[in-house]
Amino acid sequence: MQLTQHTDYAIRVLLYAQSHPDRLVNITEIADFYQISRSHLAKVVAALTQTGYLQGVRGKKGGLKLGLDPAEINLGTLVTQFEPLNLVECFSDKNQCVITTNCRLKNVLFEATKAFLAVLNQYTLHDLKMQPDVIQFISLKPTN
Amino acid sequence: MQLTQHTDYAIRVLLYAQSHPDRLVNITEIADFYQISRSHLAKVVAALTQTGYLQGVRGKKGGLKLGLDPAEINLGTLVTQFEPLNLVECFSDKNQCVITTNCRLKNVLFEATKAFLAVLNQYTLHDLKMQPDVIQFISLKPTN
After folding, report:
1. Could you please report the per-residue DSSP string of B40-86?
2. CA–CA distance from B140 to each of B9, B19, B25 (Å)?
3. Complex ipTM, two decimals?
4. Among B122, B118, B112, which residue's Cα sits nearest to residue B74?
5. Same-domain pairing of A39 and A62
6. In a domain? residue A79
7. B115 touches A: beta carbon within 8 Å
8. A131 touching B, CB under 8 A?
9. Is residue B111 domain-shared with residue B141, that is, in the same domain?
10. Is position A78 within any domain?
11. Which of chain A's residues have a Cβ under 8 Å away from the Cβ of B138?
12. Rounded-to-10 torsion of CA A44, A77, A54, A47
């Protein structure tokens, strides 16, 4: 059981943008910072922009910034929007499990997922804020 | 976020064995019943036997049966044993995320996973018991 890379990277991008409230950021520097694929990150950023979590500023000095106040970015809402929460086959449209109509597992897993999200609902991006000096330290470290 | 097929199939195998308390079952019939890969199922059955959830009976009339009372098979324990609960990269040994030491996300996801498992801990295999007549009905349906 793990979050998709898409959701994981979405949270990381928002954390990075939050750590630089005084300037715009861009995809290349975020990819360099986390040492992750730029092309994958571009898709994540597109989704974050489309959903309003990020705001793009056009132009030569353009870039990205948070589209919402960090205290308004609820983790549970974010994960629900980005993550396919199909715990087992019968949660999805492509379900072919023969016992579906007679199986109680789905309800139990649904209840457990609700409890999982209820915890995330208690936190916002603001609660995850990283120390600016640590961000700066990591940025300055050689990547080799 | 989804359970691995390994865990999903493990639960299905136990549900099937529970539905046939009066006789031994075997891998072929379980694969036929669920219409899933026999070879994948064989690995799952091996793991269930090794952990004591299933008991193998050798011989010409051999087969498999539950190794524990259904009321003793706790869903939370089973999922914890079968499922890699590495929600994001930093939960695993292969973690390379640069912000790990300064990131609060791990604790939040750990708390959420605990809540997820706490729900599963409230249920046993016995609680998921299927109606025997429905199992029989599904078994009799033509699979085309």
Report:
1. HHHHHHHHHHHTTSEEEE-STT-EEEESS-GGG-BHHHHHHHHS---
2. 21, 15, 16
3. 0.86
4. B122
5. yes
6. no
7. yes
8. yes
9. no
10. no
11. 98-99, 102
12. 30
